[in-house]
Design a protein that fits this description.
Low-confidence stretches: none
Bound molecules: flavin-adenine dinucleotide, D-malate, zinc ion
Structural class: alpha+beta
Shape: globular
Largest sheet: 7 strands, antiparallel
Number of helices: 17
């Protein structure tokens, strides 16, 4: 796209006058919006717009379309692939949705709630709870990430094995298109076969087709009780057998099944003393599992205790701590959710958010660990993730004190080894975090030409001026 020179001050003044929210232009004010959560990308913004309403967003997009100014939509800026921050050229406008915070409607009988894009995930969970219901999307960044960003990235998190990704939890969206029109698709219908599924085109599009300004989401019955346990397993293969047993015994009540290596647990305990391991038995691998029982506290405990006993007797686990209070359950989850930050505190990390068929995950870890260690002796594998849905956060940390340019220079080699192993396993190079800037250039190597052509045609149809987050997802 031939963007004009950086939009003039006069042009920005007309923008400022065109909407009720705030326009930040001073670099000191815009800087916090220009670096991503993991501090991997830092850019420059022409300005940061903080609209108050959907109509504000429509006015801003119309101004950008008229002035050929690229737009970078931003929610909580917790994304992992550099999709929410501007590039270095100072041409793009960051459009923050954080001030669109209205819970527009809650319908406990229809089991739906409609919220604006800037509402954080934890606030959506709380709005559902207030109505005596559950909104089951849950991830470590839930205090900061927004539902607009969750839908734009089709976020996964810890409940996917039971409730699916953000996509499965959304019945309708409201979108401002690349022309600055407001499409109200906020229907709360579970069945609606009337033409192409436009909603699902915007979900997962990472801000490259339009701006999600509100969503109608599904709610679920609250469980009668939850049981959480941290168990020690000898290997990822043993963890898979435990997953199978847990699914047989708990069926739909199994709502989380996370794998963590001993090194991950040690990193968390080292960097966050409150995350010390609750089990003394040393173990190379740990599983954090949770059931959400619809029947009763007693039924939850009986079925969960029976599962743990059977797993212990059959040697699938060697030790386990079953949470006896909400505080203890939260302490277990606290360890899991601190893993990304613990790894960042430890130093450099080259991250892979991959998925493979669940059945091959054990072999994948063993073989790919070996290949990486052979390629770069001394590295430390930081392996954890949502085993229950086949998604691993499969990250490489340097030997102690090895952070720095020499380690980072190996990124391409590590990516090559991991992504070729993923290809051989018929997996995905991005399970839940999306493509953004990080994986844009790898995408064509893992999609067919027809897929790339169809996506390019879709992009050209929805955003002919290429102002919606250009250079993200697609070149
Ligand atoms: P942002 O980072 O602001 O934006 C993400 C992308 O969406 C960008 O491309 C942006 O342009 C676009 N976008 C944002 N808002 C809109 C909108 N309203 N309309 C259109 N496009 C928009 N992710 C998971 O999937 N599973 C996890 O388990 C998980 N755990 C995490 C743990 C931690 C500690 C952290 C820091 C992140 C984690 N993430 C996880 C990644 C991140 O939280 C998710 O990708 C989340 O969905 C991003 O939401 P956000 O509001 O921060 O979006
Ligand atoms: C998680 O599941 O903790 C995140 O998706 C992983 C990450 O943020 O690296
Ligand atoms: Zn994750």
């Amino acid at each position: 796209m031939q963007t004009t020179a950086v939009a003039s001050r006069a042009a920005l003044d007309t923008l400022d006058a065109s909407f009720s929210g705030r326009l930040l232009t001073d670099p000191a004010d815009t800087a916090p919006f220009c670096t991503d959560w993991i501090k991997r990308w830092s850019g420059q913004a022409l300005a940061v717009a903080q609209p108050d309403t959907v109509d504000d967003i429509a006015a801003i997009v119309r101004w950008c379309a008229a002035n050929k100014v690229p737009i970078v939509p931003q929610g909580g800026n917790t994304g992992m692939v550099g999709g929410a921050v501007p590039g270095p050229d100072g041409r793009a406008l960051v459009l923050s949705t954080k001030r669109l915070r209205t819970v527009r409607a809650v319908d406990p009988v229809n089991n739906t709630l409609t919220v604006e894009a800037g509402v954080t995930l934890v606030e959506v969970q709380q709005a559902a709870l207030k109505a005596g219901r559950l909104f089951p999307l849950s991830l470590g960044a839930e205090g900061s990430c927004t539902i607009g960003g969750n839908l734009a990235t089709n976020a996964g998190g810890v409940g996917v094995l039971r409730y699916g990704n953000a996509r499965e939890l959304c019945l309708g969206v409201e979108v401002v298109t690349a022309e600055g029109q407001v499409w109200n698709g906020l229907r709360g219908l579970r069945k609606d076969n009337t033409g192409y599924d436009l909603r699902d085109l915007f979900i997962g599009s990472e801000g490259t087709l339009g701006i999600i300004t509100a969503a109608t989401l599904k709610m679920y019955p609250l469980p009668a009780a939850r049981m959480t346990a941290l168990a020690t397993v000898a290997s990822p293969h043993a963890a898979l057998r435990l997953l199978e047993l847990a699914q047989q015994r708990l069926a739909a009540s199994l709502t989380a099944f996370e794998l963590m290596s001993e090194f991950c647990m040690d990193l968390a305990a080292h960097h966050f003393p409150a995350c010390r391991k609750p089990l003394d038995t040393p173990s190379p691998w740990y599983v954090l599992l949770e059931s959400s029982d619809p029947i009763s506290e007693e039924h939850a405990r009986d079925s969960f205790d029976r599962l743990m006993e059977e797993a212990m007797e059959s040697g699938l686990i060697s030790d386990a701590a079953v949470a006896t209070s909400l505080a203890q359950s939260e302490a277990f989850w606290n360890i899991r959710h601190h893993l990304p930050d613990a790894q960042t505190r430890e130093g450099d990390s080259i991250k892979h958010d991959i998925s493979v068929p669940i059945s091959v995950i054990g072999d994948f870890i063993v073989a790919t660990n070996a290949a990486l260690e052979a390629a770069s002796p001394g590295i430390r594998m930081v392996v954890f993730g949502h085993l229950g849905d086949g998604n691993l956060h499969y990250n490489v940390s340097p030997a102690p004190g090895g952070s720095g340019p020499a380690f980072r220079a190996q990124q391409e080699m590590f990516n090559e080894i991991v992504y070729e192993a993923v290809r051989r396993a018929n997996g995905s190079i991005s399970a839940e975090h999306g493509i953004g800037q990080l994986k844009r250039d790898q995408l064509p190597h893992f999609k067919s030409d027809i897929e790339m052509a169809l996506m390019a045609r879709l992009k050209a149809a929805f955003d002919p001026q290429n102002i919606m987050n250009p250079g993200r997802v697609l070149r």
